[in-house]
Design a protein that fits this description.
By secondary structure, the protein is α+β, with helices and mostly antiparallel strands. It folds into five domains: 192 residues, 2-Layer Sandwich (Beta Polymerase, domain 2), CATH 3.30.460.10; 154 residues, Nucleotidyltransferases  domain 2 (Four Helix Bundle (Hemerythrin (Met), subunit A), Up-down Bundle); 92 residues, Hydrophobic Seed Protein (Orthogonal Bundle); 165 residues; 210 residues, no CATH class. The strands form three sheets. It has an eight-stranded antiparallel beta sheet with strand order 9-10-12-11-15-16-14-13. Strands 3-2-1-4 form a four-stranded mixed beta sheet, with helices on both faces. The radius of gyration is 34 Å and the shape is globular.
Length: 932
């Protein structure tokens, strides 16, 4: 890696700055302590800092050096503090005859102590005294701090003498680290030298193991808080797993345990090879570049790479789009690969550290430690041994002798439930070149891999270890292409490889019988799928393997499966099943969430795709694993219910159980069932209710729900209520149903959707029915928000009341939406091309309108309002949100109950809906019209 010149003289000239500050005293009556002088000094320093930062940003954009940018910014701050200190002790608080106590060293500590600063970093200073504080020292420190604060800097500071520093370092690991990183800045250099000599002799010398343990525990806690996975798609650059703080922790431990001052000395100590050290330097440089760009771009100390800045940072770093991957996705893939490298370096470092610690254990204690470690043989192999319940290599030539051992290591670890010794993983990382075409086609190696992938213990854990060590990406090169790949959207929480491994974990969890209440049908079906276990696991691992390519990832993934599965040991029939599952892995999810499952054509079309009950079962399990593996909160009971409904209806059709009775006959039977359920009602009331409903309602709505609706209608009529709502909770499905009874109105669904948006309720489904007396009986399903039923009931009743208020005119919808809704996060960040289609092949009775676009508050209200304006009747609506993207489906007819067949009218519908999705002209008028 070419070395980038620091060019520190271009940042600031300390001598020139001192002369400028001195000259200011002459222009302010020679009094450096006066208000006028202070203001002038402050203004000069502010200008020099701003100019230096602008220059640092310009140089970063030119040479791309992250570490050198941090060094330049640190140098800029060094010169400002030095000049300010000299000005303070010369012109403000000059001591003509200083005593021995009136001495001071200014020491940079923390990140600043390393000589690197990000644009928004805190400035950590230690004012080091020989003895106790003096009035002179107090005045100087106070002057410096107030000036730095007035410059808008965040300053962490401590004023201590050497004895205090040593005493506190013994008891506080944070202070110990701060002193470890201490760097002389200005003032009395001998004080600094004395502190470091005493610190090394009195604190560091005998406490290496204690410090290592404390810092690694601190790192684990930091990872837990920042998000345990290094593959979160909005990573924390500083504190996240694989971030800068992990590299710093390695260096702190190295400095402390190995007593080195530079990273390069770790090569001499044998901790890293030269290549690994260069990886360390390169990773640090990249992370510093990202962090500096992030601070410059946001104008503050922002440490998390949020979606709304990722595109800008990618542009600043010079990334460009490639087929299948946008510039921001290429940048983030690079970021995660660097984070993975940091993990590799950590493992290598910990292995060396453990070995070094063992060397430093004296005589008898070393014998005891060896005895306690219990290095013993591993049954069935002479190539691996067990060291303290961790599998490790018998010698460094294990993989060279037989590359299949690269797979056996993970197989034995899984079989015996062993953790991995850092030495073993270090050797794996250094032996990846041995994984070639021969090994990929080796039958034993492939069977070992399949055993690990389908293990009934913890396949996710060992596959993740294989991935982090680089084995998985080398063994399946197509998998290697999606390692660290992110998708720039708010739906997917993890990188593609991490998502696939989590899907494997969900499958293993279902097999173990865990979370049965969450997936009752899958738990019932999985035991019967044992003969297809390997097929199902392979499909789960490969279903997104073609992400990031220009073509459809499902079709490309199927081609990859057909190519590699025979080498993995699968038969032609098994290979074809895996390829089919990969190609159709989205079919069940999309059908369940975006189609009307009460429409017979939906089930017919899906059954045509699936063709067999065996495939249906496997596709259901794959779909559950896929949705669950996306991230926390993505799966919910409503999605589970939709999948179960689709499964049962399709199974019935595939096994020949669908009724051939005519629609009219089935409607008559449903009417008779409702009549029987209303026995006990006055005959007049019963006849009136039975006469209210059209056949469509009777065929779609369950009898128990029909009875509930009948009670609602009777009570509303008795109370002479024109507008009424009722709430019914579905706790298991995680949705709440709101039934709306009101005079029918063409824009009714638009008004209801707007009221729900204003109340913060997300509609997931809607069924629209009209009674024979001209009223609408609509059922709206909204996502459940509260765990406790009583809390959810109160919330749903508030939503219902809001709907009634809007319908009755007591509340104006546009005002309410404007006041109560906030712009969706990502509205300005993501770009989704709006799409609208009118399809007549998806239903025998309805035209199906599909829309896709970027979500925003009140969008559903606008879309349904536009559909009403187009003189269309909505029979059902199916609302699906994937992060920032909406995919909504509406089953509609014209006002005469017919499909929309005219091409010109279809084109007008598409044009109007695309305009609405784009937030086009007249949006305010549409909202206003919805309220009228």
């Amino acid at each position: 890696m070419a070395k980038i010149p620091l060019k520190l003289d271009e940042m600031i000239d300390g001598d020139t700055l001192r002369r400028e500050l001195t000259a200011l005293t002459a222009r302010t009556d020679g009094d450096g302590s006066g208000t006028q002088a202070r203001t002038a000094v402050l203004q000069t320093l502010r200008e020099r800092l701003a100019a230096g930062r602008r220059r640092a940003e310009d140089m970063l954009m030119q040479d791309g050096g992250g570490t050198v940018c941090a060094v330049r910014l640190s140098h800029l701050m060094d010169e400002v503090i030095r000049a300010l200190y000299d000005y303070a002790v010369t012109h403000v608080y000059r001591s003509k005859n200083p005593s021995s106590g009136e001495r001071m060293a200014i020491v940079a500590v923390g990140g600043y102590g390393r000589g690197t600063l990000a644009p928004g970093s805190d400035i950590d200073l230690l004012f080091l005294l020989p003895y106790k504080q003096t009035p002179w020292g107090e005045q100087v420190v106070e002057y410096l701090l107030y000036m730095l604060w007035d410059l808008g800097l965040k300053v962490g500071h401590a004023t201590r003498n050497i004895d205090e520093c040593i005493r506190l370092s013994r008891t506080d690991i944070t202070i110990r680290t701060a002193v470890l990183e201490a760097r002389y800045l200005w003032g009395e250099g001998k004080l600094y030298d004395e502190l470091m000599a005493r610190f090394d002799h009195e604190v560091v010398r005998a406490t290496g193991a204690e410090y290592v343990q404390a810092k690694l525990a601190e790192r684990d806690e930091r990872h837990r808080k920042a998000g345990a996975s290094r593959y979160l798609v909005e990573p924390h650059v500083k504190d996240g797993k694989g971030g800068l703080r992990d590299l710093h922790t390695l260096f702190w431990i190295a400095k402390y345990f190995y007593r080195v001052r530079t990273g390069e000395e770790l090569v001499e100590k044998g901790v890293f090879t030269r290549e690994e050290y260069l990886q360390f330097v390169k990773a640090e440089d990249f992370l510093w570049a990202v962090r500096c760009h992030l601070h410059f771009q946001t104008g503050k100390a922002e440490e998390r790479l949020h979606f709304d800045v990722q595109r800008d940072i990618a542009e600043r770093l010079g990334y460009t789009s490639h087929p299948g991957l946008s510039a921001v996705e290429r940048f983030m893939k690079h970021y995660f690969l660097v984070a993975k490298e940091v993990g590799d370096l950590t493992r290598i470092f910990c292995a060396a550290l453990e070995e070094e610690q063992a060397k430093h254990v004296p005589g008898f204690n070393r014998f005891l430690q060896s005895f306690q470690r219990r290095r013993r043989k591993l049954a069935g192999t002479s190539d691996f041994i067990i060291d303290n319940d961790r599998i490790t290599v018998a010698d460094d030539a294990v993989f060279e002798r037989d590359p299949v051992n690269l797979l056996r290591l993970f197989w034995f670890a899984d079989k015996h439930g062993l953790e991995f010794h850092p030495d073993a993983l270090k050797l794996v990382t250094r032996s990846l070149k041995l994984i070639d075409r021969n090994l990929r086609r080796n039958p034993e190696a492939n069977q070992l891999f399949l055993d690990v992938m389908t293990s009934n213990r913890n396949p996710e854990l060992n596959l993740r270890r294989m991935n982090e060590a680089g084995v998985l990406g080398k063994l399946i090169p197509d998998f290697g292409k999606i390692v660290a790949m992110m998708q720039f959207n708010m739906y997917h929480h993890y990188t593609v490889d991490e998502h696939l491994l989590r899907c494997i974990g969900v499958m293993a969890e279902i097999e173990r019988g865990e979370n049965e209440k969450l997936h009752p049908l899958a738990h019932k079906l999985v035991p019967g799928l044992k003969p297809q276990r390997e097929v199902l696991y392979a499909a789960i691992l490969l279903h997104d393997i073609a992400k990031g390519r220009p073509e459809d990832h499902s079709e490309a993934g199927a081609r990859i499966a057909r190519r590699i599965c025979p080498h993995m040991g699968f038969s032609p029939a098994e290979t074809e099943t895996i390829a089919w599952l990969v190609e159709n892995h989205l079919a069940m999810s999309m059908t369940a969430q975006t189609r009307d499952l009460n429409d017979r054509k939906t089930i017919d079309d899906f059954a045509t795709v699936v063709q067999s009950v065996e495939r249906l079962k496997m596709l259901l399990v794959l779909t559950i694993c896929d949705i669950r593996g996306v991230g926390p909160g993505v799966w919910n009971g409503w999605k589970g219910q939709l999948l179960r409904t689709l499964y049962y209806e399709t199974e019935l059709l595939l096994t020949g159980g669908f009724s051939e009775v005519s629609r009219a006959k089935r409607a008559e039977q449903a009417r008779e069932e409702l009549a029987g359920a209303l026995v006990g009602w006055p005959e007049k009331d019963r006849k009136r209710i039975l006469a209210l409903h059209y056949d469509n309602y009777l065929l779609i709505v369950d009898t128990k729900d029909q009875v509930r609706h009948a009670h609602l209608i009777r009570e509303a009529d008795a109370a002479k209520k024109v507008f009424t709502t009722a709430v019914n909770m579905h706790a298991f499905e995680a949705v709440t149903e709101i039934t709306v009874l009101t005079p029918d109105h063409p824009r009714l669904l638009s008004v209801v959707a707007g009221a729900c948006a204003a109340a913060g309720a997300n509609i997931v489904d809607a069924q629209i029915f009209t009674t024979t007396d001209g009223r609408a009986l609509d059922t709206i399903l909204i996502n459940r928000e509260f765990e406790r039923d009583e809390d959810e009931l109160r919330r749903a009743q508030r939503v219902g009341k809001l709907i009634e208020d809007v319908l009755s005119g007591r509340t104006r919808l546009p005002d309410m939406i404007e006041k109560r809704t906030k712009p969706k996060r990502g509205q300005k960040v993501f770009r989704i091309e709006p799409l609208a289609q009118v399809r007549n092949s998806l239903s025998n009775r309805f035209s199906v309108i599909e829309v896709e676009g970027l979500d925003r508050p009140g969008l559903l209200s606008e879309i349904t309002g536009a559909i009403s304006d187009l003189s269309l009747d909505i029979a059902s609506a199916h609302i699906t949100t994937f992060g920032e993207k909406v995919i909504d489906t509406f089953y509609v007819t014209d006002l005469t109950g017919q499909k929309i067949e005219n091409p010109t009218r279809q084109a007008a519908i598409r044009e109007r809906l695309i305009e609405t999705l784009s937030g086009g002209p007249g949006r305010g008028q549409k909202l206003k019209a919805a309220a009228e």
